[in-house]
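Researcher: I need the complex structure. Ligand is zinc ion. Inputs:
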Amino acid sequence: MGDLQPRAGVHFPRSTGEFQSWFATDADCLDFLDWLRWPSGFACPECGHGGGWAVADGRYKCAACGKRTSVTAGTLFDRRRTPLTVWFTACWMFAAQKGGVSALSLQRSLEIGSYPTAWAMLHRLRSVLVRPGRDRLSGTVEVDETFIGGEEAGLRGGRARGKKSLVGVAVEVRQPRGYGRCRMEILPDASAGSLHAFLTRHVEPGATVITDGWMGYHGIAGLGYAHVRRSQRAARARGEDPGKLLPGVHRVASLAKRWLLGTHQGSVEDRHLQSYLNEFCFRFNRRRSRSRGLVFYRVLELAVSPPPSPRRSHPPRRPGEASRRASSGHGRPGPGEPLTWHSPVS
Ligand SMILES: [Zn+2]
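Model: Output:
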């Protein structure tokens, strides 16, 4: 689907009014998912065969292996009790509002019974935003760490102080001015091991990496980066504000903190922080998108993308053996861990 240039009004709705008329029923939503998932016709997720025929209740039967597949199988929408029209409305609100939507306002707008249901839907949406195998940052990239969370986390439920999380921030610096894409990831610590791994995961070798003088960044030239160090001590000696040495990462970090306090009123648990950071980066990296409908299209596209390697994502299980997938959580997959769309049936 990489070559497809989606056109407003053709491939996605331009306005809320259009959205409502396009997706009035679950069948409308199924049609759209069908087209998104198999733009050049049905392909069997089981055996990879490219051909089959439609059978009852929106399923396809593979012409080769005979397995029946629904368009939602293996996607975010698989085996959900919530109607697709409600899911689509949640996707629309998630995408159409620049700052996103809180679980509380989603619950109110959709008249979903419970806050946990609304929260779980948003959490599922966040879980697909990190595309496996996405490009790493390139060009000139500022990198730094910051602390996020902790004392802000208690705003809803009293003044409970949580632990702040150390977060790695990387952002592309454009010439003559402005910023490109960003990445944020919770780090175990600020050691060289953690920071080097963060760089390797998120920044393309050959990039110019700008850091402060912290020793954890020593040796990154050996990883293939051109390293530019901006020493805080030297800045102080020059009478400059050392806090302004890395303006890009500081801008991204402060926008992220403001977004967490704004849209989500700071009510983000530490263990879910990474998925909120993923959502923030997704939004930041699409901040110039003129059309919110296009963002909606991208969210749905990610939601129906099959896992990168079906075989690895469907490990054979002995009959009766319980799935271990549920314990892997919904957050960002670790290195080498395939991103799967599976979770206990809700
Ligand atoms: Zn098949």
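Model: Summary of the prediction. The longest helix spans residues 247-262.
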